[in-house]
Amino acid sequence: MRGSLRDETPLDIAARYGHLESVKILSRPEFKDGEGLQDLSLKYPGIPMTPNAYPPFGNKKMTPLLHAAEQGQLEVVAYLYNNRGNQIDAKNSNKHDALTLASYAGSEPLVRYLDEFIFSTDYEV
After folding, report:
1. Which residue, 5, 10, 6, 27, is CA-closest to 77?
2. Distance, CA of 49 to CA of 47 (rounded, Å)
3. For residue 84, how many other CB atoms are within 10 A of its CB?
């Protein structure tokens, strides 16, 4: 696994591995600032439970949307964009955005989605 669990929130991990239902649960407002994590930490004592920090968390400056894009997780990226659109302009510590990370992942469907629906700009000629 890239990075350390200490540098990733539960939402980051769910997004990275494409667990859409977990992303939906962990995106709820009660998890954003760390409240609600105590129940999860009691159920899963081996997994560090840190708040879903925004702006980007950890030394790689990755948001959950960037984690999902890096792994080509189209459904997760679409959900996060539609429900937490403020992450779409984020860049990691290497100044890569979601479109760049999706390109590196070789995820043509995600690249098309990001290019067509999010990053495209209509120009009049």
Report:
1. 27
2. 6
3. 18
pLDDT in tens, 45-86: 555 444 443 445 555 788 899 999 999 999 999 999 888 765
For the chain, percent helix, then strand, then coil, each to nearest 5?
A: 55, 0, 45
Question: Which range (37-41, 63-67, 114-118) has the least confidence?
Answer: 37-41
**pTM of the entire structure?**
0.72
Q: How far is CA 15 from the centre of its chain?
A: 5
* DSSP per-residue codes, 47-82: S------SS-BTTTTB-HHHHHHHTT-HHHHHHHHH
Q: CA 44 to CA 33: how far, in whole Å?
A: 19
